[in-house]
Structure formats: C-alpha cells, structure tokens
Amino acid sequence: MVNQAVVAALIPAKVDPADLCVLPQATLDAIAKYLSVGGLASQVSSAAGVTPLTNNLAQQAFNLATQNTASINTLSAKTLQRRVVATRQNLPTGDAIQAFAIVPPMPSQDYEVRVEYNGPSTPHPSAYFNWRVVNGTKTESQFQLSFENTPSSTTVTVIVEEARNIE
User: What gap in Å lies between CA 29 and CA 46, rounded to an integer?
Assistant: First the structure.
C-alpha cells in the first residue's frame, strides 16, 4: 500500500462575479512573475520507507547548508594555525636558554618560530646577538630557544605559525 501526504495545498474559494476585479494582463504577468507557491513539502511512503521529493524547499535549504559546511571545513583545514607564545618577555643579559609553551598545541611539529627583539636604543658592545631553536626540543606543545649575546633590557615577542606547504 502506498500513502501520499501533502502538507499544504491551495483551495480557491468561489467568488461572486460582482466582486471580481479585472486586472490588465501586464499586471497579472507581473504578479505571476514574483508570486509563486512552490516547495510544498510532500513525501511518498512505501514499504521501503519514506522518500522525500526533491522539490521540498526545506530539503533544498538543508542540502545548501550541508554544501556550505563542507566548504567551510575545507577552508578551515587550509587555514594556517598561529599562536602568540610570548609577548615582551624579558631576556637575561648574555647567553641563555629559555623554554616556551604553546597553548593550545600546534597540530604538528611542522611550524616556524618567529622572534621579535625589543630593547633600548643604546649601542651594544658586540655587533652579534642571535637566537636559535635548540635541537630536539621542538614538539607540538613546547620548544626551547637559545639566545646568544643578548644586550641588557631586551624583551622578545615569540610567535609560531604552521609551515606553508607549496602546492
């Protein structure tokens, strides 16, 4: 046995001819162009189950939302993750090794470390001061940096960002 259910239907009422308003054809065409009844939610059920028809507006909206969600997920997966690890953190003068935590952790160990030095404008007796990632300390959630020959009153801002894959 096959059942069919129609959720909505239009039933015209009988109108007395004296109450009719005759509109020009152009007006009727304009109304028909912008006014339509579509997407009546209908389903056909059978022994195999319920099969929704494709003209259902709610189903079309759901399908569009599903497509948009898939697109957003694809774009999110391509967005590079970035974390500010330290902002204007004081550094000891001279040589030092400092540990940094990444919260929340990066998705992998494939990330770049960026360091910005901030300090006074007084000249430094040595022309060389630098930093490097200490071998074997880089994980998804932490790393250590070695600062060499750092002038006094120096702070650093440290940012990590996923490495870019060139396709």
Answer: 40
How many CB atoms lie under 10 A from the CB of residue 156?
22
**Residue 16: is it exposed, middle or buried by C-beta count within 10 angstroms (0-12/13-18/19+)?**
exposed
Give kind and range of the element (H or E) at residue 121.
none
Task: Supply 141's token pair.
Answer: 């959630």
Distance CA 116, CA 136 (A): 22
3-class DSSP state for residue 78? helix
Q: d(Cα 10, Cα 160) in Å, to the nearest integer?
A: 62
pTM of full prediction above 0.70: no
Mean pLDDT of the chain: 77
| CA pair distance 139, 18, nearest whole angstrom | 85
| Span 100-110, average pLDDT | 93
What type of residue is 145? Answer: L
In the chain, what percentage of residues exceed pLDDT 70? 62
